[in-house]
Amino acid sequence: MPAIRIIHRTRLAPAEAWRRLTDWERHGSQVPLTRTIIETAPPTHVGTRFTARTGVGSITFDDPMEVTVWQPPADTSAGLVRLVKRGGAVTGWAEIEIRPAPGGGCEAEWREELRLRGLPRLFAPLTAAAARFLFGRALRALLR
């Protein structure tokens, strides 16, 4: 699937936007039928692992991820977190970047490339559209 890119401006300070967007448990509450299971002790750092489990009852799939870049924003510099998807069904990566905006607040950019094993390329545009919708909704909700 081609990478998706979502940009959202907020009046939140970069540090607060970062805190909200890297609260992995809150991510699960923003994606339907999903919960997040944290597998490493806080605070988040390179090597932190967690799994987004999506489904109903016994019909679920896991999206295990690992933090490979952890650079919180500082003063006027941007922050960047990169997650690598380590699952059997879902692979790829996601990045969240927080940049201070002129005049206050910040700009949050969510970039993601995800692949669903076994799904033919024919479905890539549909998958990208669904991902843009879900992740855009989650980004806005996490920054509220």
Helical region count? Answer: 3
Mean pLDDT: 93
Radius of gyration: 15 Å
Largest sheet: 7 strands, antiparallel
Description:
A 7-stranded antiparallel sheet has the order 1-7-6-5-4-3-2. Strand 4 and strand 5 form a beta hairpin. It has 3 helices and 7 strands. The chain starts with a strand and ends with a helix. The longest helix has 19 residues. By secondary structure, it is of the alpha+beta class. The chain is globular, with a radius of gyration of 15 Å. The model has no long low-confidence stretch (mean pLDDT 93).
Give a brief outline of the structure:
The chain is an alpha+beta fold and 144 residues long. Helices cover 24% and strands 44% of the residues. It has 3 helices and 7 strands; from the N terminus they run E-H-H-E-E-E-E-E-E-H.
Summarize the helices and strands and which ones pair or pack.
Elements lengths: L3 E7 L3 H8 L2 H7 L3 E5 L10 E8 L2 E13 L7 E8 L3 E11 L5 E11 L7 H19 L2
Antiparallel strand pairs: 1-7, 2-3, 3-4, 4-5, 5-6, 6-7
Top keywords for this entry?
144 residues; 7 strands; alpha+beta; single chain
